[in-house]
Amino acid sequence: MNKQDDELFSVNHFLLMDEALTLVRSGGSTALVAYYLGTIPFVIGLLFFWNDMSSSSFAADHILWASLLMAVLFCWMKGWQAVYGRILYEVRLGTPPQPINPVEFLRICVQQARIQPWGILLFILCMPLLFIPFPWINAFFQNHTVLGAVADKKELTRQSRKLATKEKWQNYVIIWILSPWPLFLVFLCCFGLAAAISTSTGMMGVSPDLLGDLPWFIIGTLFIVIGVWPASPLGVVVAANILLLLMALPYLINMLTGVETVMLRSGYYWVANTTSLLTISCGAYLLLDPLLKAAYTLRCFYGMSLRSGTDLLVDLRLCK
After folding, report:
1. Are residues 85 and 203 in the same domain?
2. 296 domain-assigned
3. Do 78 and 113 sit in the same domain of this protein?
4. Are 59 and 140 within one domain?
5. Are 195 and 149 contacting, i.e. CB atoms less than 8 angstroms apart?
6. Which of 10, 12, 31, 256 is the most exposed place for a label (fewest CB within 10 A)?
7. Using CB atoms within 10 A of its CB, is residue 306 exposed (0-12), middle (13-18) or buried (19+)?
8. In a domain, 283, yes or no
9. Residue 319 lies in a domain
10. Domain tally, the chain
11. 102-115 vs 134-146: helix crossing angle, rounded to 10
12. pLDDT of the chain along its 320 residues, tens only?
């Protein structure tokens, strides 16, 4: 594409996100069921895996098969997210969604498994580079997911890479508003800094057991209030609502049933731990990521329509 084509691709950032919300609503329950059918098992498995590896004394005995299970769930999730992107793409085309047979779904999962695991490694490598290449890397892997069941398998990687470099500022705004990844960054920073606090207090002669999980709570609060709010405003609002729900849940159970649960007796430790922080981040991911995928589906739709004119044909058909 030349510079003129790139200008034709330009769509107002907020209009694109508004259209993405409309596209998710137009996809209906079929699209959301496809998305959550793949994503919820992975999220639940991730929470159990994290809790087991961080607290169980027998974690080393079954870490191999547990890691293998997480890898299978990850491929399962990416396969269904590709199906979700195909349903949204067909809705934007104005055509009824076509069913996917098991053989084709297996092919999509294998194709995603070849590329998507590298994204986790590249996201980690972006941290020392101050996230300069993160928008392009994120756009490439998002494009590869939403086009996984749409584009030809031979052209999928090339098209994903080509579309990831277009409309840089639009990509920045979409990540800033809709992406849940800054919340996972907070989780990793909280983990590292709280571990550093626990280590330093141990070197000063203060027992880490005396502090308990208090450093997690302090560091997490400071990062959410100071660091993450400008980086992910919508993500912080969603995460704050999930946090309030988790804090109020033991009291609601006690008020409605009269049962004094372990969560109620734990006090603030119920939410001041790494498992709760990961639960909040995963909850925000489940709520924000469908909208993010819809936004990248529209980016791919408009980007590929520059040469085919598909967007004009769809609009003309709707007018007719």
Report:
1. no
2. no
3. yes
4. yes
5. no
6. 256
7. middle
8. no
9. no
10. 2
11. 170
12. 455 444 445 567 788 888 899 999 998 899 999 999 999 999 999 999 988 888 778 888 888 899 999 999 999 999 999 999 999 999 988 888 788 888 999 999 999 999 998 887 887 777 655 556 778 888 899 999 999 888 777 888 888 988 888 888 888 888 888 887 766 666 666 666 656 655 665 544 444 444 455 555 555 555 555 556 666 778 878 887 888 888 888 888 888 887 777 777 776 666 767 777 788 888 989 999 999 999 999 998 888 887 777 777 777 777 76
Continuous H helices in the chain: 3-8, 13-55, 63-93, 102-115, 117-126, 134-146, 156-164, 168-178, 181-203, 208-211, 214-222, 233-257, 262-266, 274-308, 310-319
Of 91, 82, 298, which Cα lies nearest the Cα of 174? 298
Here the tokens at position 290 are 């469908």
Provide the whole-model pTM.
0.82
d(CA 144, CA 147): 5
Q: Which amino acid is at 288?
A: L
Q: Which two tokens stand for residue 59?
A: 């974690």
Identify which of 87, 145, 139, 136 has the alpha carbon closest to the alpha carbon of residue 116.
145
Tell me whether residue 18 is in a domain: yes
Task: Tell me which residue range forms the domain holding 75.
Answer: 13-172
Tell whether 215 and 100 lie within a shared domain: no
Please tell me the distance from the alpha carbon of residue 135 to that of residue 123, in angstroms, as a whole number: 10
Amino acid at 203: M
d(Cα 211, Cα 116) in Å, to the nearest integer?
39
DSSP state letters, 120-134: HHHHHHHGGGTTSSH
236 and 270 part of one domain: yes
